[in-house]
Amino acid sequence: MSSLAEVFNLQLLFDVLRMTTPILLLALGGMITDRAGVLNIALEGLLVFGAFAAVVGTGMTGNLLVGVVAALVGSGLLSLAFAWFALYL
Questions:
Q1: Which regions in the chain score pLDDT beneath 70?
Q2: CA 53 centroid distance within chain
């Protein structure tokens, strides 16, 4: 019983919540788009692309705010492309 208490402690619960929050938010976004009648399977790709744009933007300028804006713009443009393909093709 002592070894189980060492593994499953309160810190593990906090770590699990911290690590799964982005995936839970993606699941919520997917549920909202599904309820709106649009099947969006690109949500995880948008998250990864936004993270990549944030790293590139921050790395090139050294400013964290520029990285956040780059992530927003990059994911927004990719979402716009997805919407165009979904509506017109």
A1: 1
A2: 12
